[in-house]
């Protein structure tokens, strides 16, 4: 009995200074804890804090479907329809959708880095959409050549619409500058596969046009983008030909493409009239070279055979019409 | 013929690579602010000026980082230090005369049972207009202890965030407060201190 009393007294003594101290410090905070609905009263219901979800999954899948669809349309327009005007229509659609609406993200060019990281870092999680974005244009290139570059890539479309008066870049210079993209590809992969803390996604950081798509960006990148656009008026698609790291991959894949652009519709004339037609230096010895051909459909217009084909078609129509 | 063989090999190699990656692909990861690291919300940081880097570094026009008030944790104070500039002159009703938010993104309304005798006994609901807020963090800085309860934190809005490979804010943040975490975890309320 006595022991218990003593213990209680000791405990009281120990607690006392603490209580005195707590009274001495005055918090200026108006409330101690968050008042809940019951305290607030008046039938108040606590609203939920705004937590918007990311873009819905089916919309992300739609991006991939549109990418695949646009490449199929691009191949059909260029290989079958052989019509530049239609291709420009597709390019403008891609520029608006993949560029300005989707703000340039996700794009196959940048996805190189994600794939490189995913292949080397077992902990890195790569979304399925990014995998599809990376591989689809490469598969397309194995069958039809660089259909992606033609009217699908937003960066390509951006440069395609500004081509004004392109000059022919000397072939040797063109070839030397063309090596830059391989170095850039190697650099991007090396920087991306470093340990997570030091990882750098240079392709995204130095995307020349994404600032225009987002209508904001670092001043130096907007400047570089502007320089590319102004230069692109007189030099056809400089970024695509010399710097695009994904172009390097497409270049390799399209070398073994099943089909590609053939300038003449059915038989080769070897007249050489198309020699100057390509602003991208992709015509060599009167033939379009698949690894460099950017699917712009300009060269058809220079071919006399093409005109003949159109005329023959017209004649067939008139003969058919008069025979009836 | 030879080219056909090469092409077939290339198709197989690409398909194999895609399959391998698809096999190891899993759920979405997103960027989110860790409130216990963020200089604006973490306890013990007593910088006078809020850190403005979330506003200035984000690649989208109006930063994807916004201040979010977790209502269930809000003290609903009469004189809210995040709503009012508590150092400004006091008006005739005894309230601070200036607001804190430079963009006037916070609205205040009395809620629940009203006390007609003393309005300072009332509770108030503070709502942040997410379309006006640019994530400067001033209110976050003021809402934390000892003045507030830390119910306001900076959060990434996923309808604005473009999910950069390397978030530009994360490279600018001096406290490494931006982290890439799975989406469900990122939607949890971000509190500097767990209250329960």
Please give the structural blueprint.
The complex is a heterodimer of chains A (324) and B (196).
Chain A: H1 2-24, H2 37-40, H3 57-81, H4 84-101, H5 108-120, H6 128-144, H7 147-151, H8 154-160, H9 171-178, H10 180-192, H11 202-205, H12 210-214, H13 219-234, H14 238-243, H15 245-255, E1 283-284, E2 287-288, H16 304-323
Antiparallel strand pairs in A: 1-2
Chain B: H1 2-24, E1 29-33, H2 53-57, E2 65-69, E3 106-111, E4 123-128, H3 138-143, E5 152-156, H4 168-172, E6 178-182, H5 183-186
Antiparallel strand pairs in B: 1-6, 2-5, 3-4
How many strand segments of chain A?
2
Largest sheet of chain A: 2 strands, antiparallel
Strand order of the largest sheet of chain B: 1-6
Portion in helices of chain B: 10-25%
**Distance from first to last alpha carbon of chain A:** 127 Å
How many structural domains does the protein architecture of chain A include? 1
Task: Please bin the fraction of helical residues of chain A.
Answer: 55-70%
Please report the distance between the alpha carbons of the first and last residues of chain B. Answer: 71 Å
Spatial extent as radius of gyration of chain B: 23 Å
Runs of chain B in which pLDDT lies below 50 for 5 or more consecutive residues are none
Give the quaternary arrangement of the chains: heterodimer
Count of DSSP helices of chain A? 16
The largest sheet of chain B, given as strand count, sense and whether it forms a barrel, is: 2 strands, antiparallel
Strand content of chain A: under 5%
SS elements, strand count of chain B? 6
Structural class of chain B: alpha+beta
Largest interchain contact: A-B, 56 and 62 residues
Radius of gyration of chain A: 32 Å
Helix count of chain B? Answer: 5
